[in-house]
Amino acid sequence: MREGAWQPTDLERRLAELLAQSAAGTGSLDAAAVRAAIREGSMTAIRENGGRFVGLLADLLPLIDGPEPSARHAAGLAHDAAGTVAQSAPDRRAAQSPPACPCPGEAGSDQREVPRPRPLSPPRREGGRRLRADAALNHTRVLTAAAQIVRERGLSHLTMEAVAAEAGVGKGTVFRRFGDRAGLLQALLQRSEAAFQAAHLSGSDPADTRDKAIEQLRAFGVAAIQRYATEPELQMAAEPSPDQRYGHALRRAYHERVSLLFGLAAPEADAELLGHAALGYLDPALVWYLGEQRKLPLHRLEAGWLELVARLTRQSQPRTR
Questions:
Q1: What 8-state DSSP symbol labels residue 206?
Q2: pTM (2 decimals)?
Q3: How far is CA 140 from CA 71, 136, 187, 198, in A?
Q4: pLDDT per residue over 120-151, tens digit each?
Q5: Which of 130, 258, 279, 283 has its CA 20 to 30 A from that of 289?
Q6: In which region does residue 180 sit, left (phi positive, over 0), alpha (psi from -120 to 50) or beta (all else)?
Q7: Long-range contact pairs involving 2-7 (C-beta distance under 8 Å, separation at least 24)
Q8: Burial of residue 162, with CB atoms counted within 10 A of its CB: 0-12 exposed, 13-18 middle, 19 or more buried
Q9: 90 near 118, Cβ under 8 Å?
Q10: Nearest Cα to 48, choosing from 74, 99, 3, 10?
Q11: How far apart are the C-alpha atoms of 219 and 251, rounded to whole Å?
Q12: Could you give the CA distance from residue 291 to residue 272 in angstroms, rounded to a whole number?
């Protein structure tokens, strides 16, 4: 929507408004409301914008239809997205109303302007504040406050009460939005992970040369080290148990990315094994130990990664099979 590639249609805005109304007072959606919107749109919505909005609803449904703490966070984000679509400006071509024209009445002299359609908008709270905007602002405040507490005071000080006080919102707002402390932690991790992936996984340009692959390997590791050094407790709390670590979806995504780059940077090497070896250097617990326990400066850890990449991507001997 920001890039103008998708302008919601009237039907899509009506569905979004239906969702926003169903969440009035809570600031989050539930699975029943999403299913109702999908039924309301029926086959017609599939033909509009290639079914983009109704497809988004279908993708969101399994994320919010569960008891996990992260489901509350996903439901809140889904509500914000629905509110954005509901109050979006109509497509310019659709929004151009017929110009004011003389419409003679029986007396033959009146001029009346054809009324312009009013865009749909989310329900308002008392005082005229939009629920979506208010919920989105609280969401940002809470996450920013939680991140500051973890960064400055440590994970042990992260309580729902402390976050509410730091954010300047009621404790009930934090509980409604994130469910419990585990849900709040999950939301913090998702925000951090989304920014990292946008820069170094899904959002990065595909490497098509050896030099570009090496450049992206260097950037990936430096960014990971800086991230782990900034929020070490949060990252270590998110680490899966040892028996699940290497099969975890996030670890597999990192390995796939790093292995792909090593395959371009060192085509004669075993990229799969190099990927595992390199990710061992980027272990959050190791970064914490070297920085906090051994007191190694951050720039030395970064330099170590760059040296590792340089050594692993040198012209290698053909591997034996």
A1: P
A2: 0.53
A3: 17, 6, 11, 19
A4: 334 344 344 444 556 667 778 888 888 888 88
A5: 258
A6: beta
A7: 6/49, 6/52, 7/49, 7/88, 7/90, 7/91, 7/92
A8: middle
A9: no
A10: 10
A11: 18
A12: 28
- Can you say how many angstroms the Cα of residue 235 is from the centroid of all Cα atoms in its chain? 17
Cα 107 to Cα 153: distance, rounded to the nearest angstrom: 77
Burial 54-79 (b: 16+ CB within 10 A, else e): bebbeebbebbeeeebbbbbbbbbbb
pLDDT digit string, tens, across residues 43-66? 566 566 666 676 777 767 666 666
Distance of alpha carbon 178 from alpha carbon 175, whole angstroms:
5
Q: Which residues make Cβ contacts (< 8 Å) with residue 131, sequence separation at least 6?
A: 20, 23, 24, 25, 27, 83, 122, 123, 124, 125
Percent of the chain with pLDDT over 70: 64
In terms of phi and psi (left: phi > 0; alpha: psi -120 to 50; beta: otherwise), the region of 74 is: alpha
